[in-house]
Amino acid sequence: MTESINDTLLKISDVARLLNFSEVTIKRWIYQGKISSTKTPGGQYRIPLSEVERIKTMGQPAAGEGVSSPVDHLGQPVSIARDLLILLVEDVVETQGFISYWLRQQGHRVDLANDGAKALQLLSTYKPDLVITDLRMPDVNGFELIRAIRNSPHLSDLPVIAISIYVSKEGEDFLGYREEAFQAGANAVLSKPFDYETLEMEIVKVLS
Fold first, then answer.
1. 3-class DSSP state of 17
2. Domains along the sequence of the chain with CATH
3. More exposed terminus of the chain, fewer Cβ within 10 Å: N or C?
């Protein structure tokens, strides 16, 4: 869809309010390409007002069907956006604090591990909904952690988002970290520092 030059750009929160859908649903539509959007220089999504008017007129933005919600084994809708149990594996205390604070502000429960060894110890006692792990850590690093998860019959399907300062946002991979993380079994790889909207979109993506 082509935007008018004078088309007002709205925040996701405003669009969610106007359409009476959750912000996560709006973000999922953006990711699935079912609603037109642009990105600010700071990485924030903006949606043209004309798109809002179109959806009001034509209904949910899909090929006639709208966006289906995830369901559990009984066929009941489940939430993939709130009240997740997330294991955050990060050895830098400040980074660990920033990310865990944001995740909790979004309504998630967060357990912390300073390295892969501690993470594996925790994973031997329970299975979280998602693991977010740094790659370069002492003792058991992120690559080894991801491989251990993929080799575990109990954990092999556990979604993992890898994060690293050694992977650029432009996709350059001078040290091969991105490629190695994907080869190890990561579902997504993000460059640090990242904007939290990007992280939330990746969470929605890997859990869809």
1. helix
2. 9-58 (1.10.1660.10), 85-207 (3.40.50.2300)
3. N
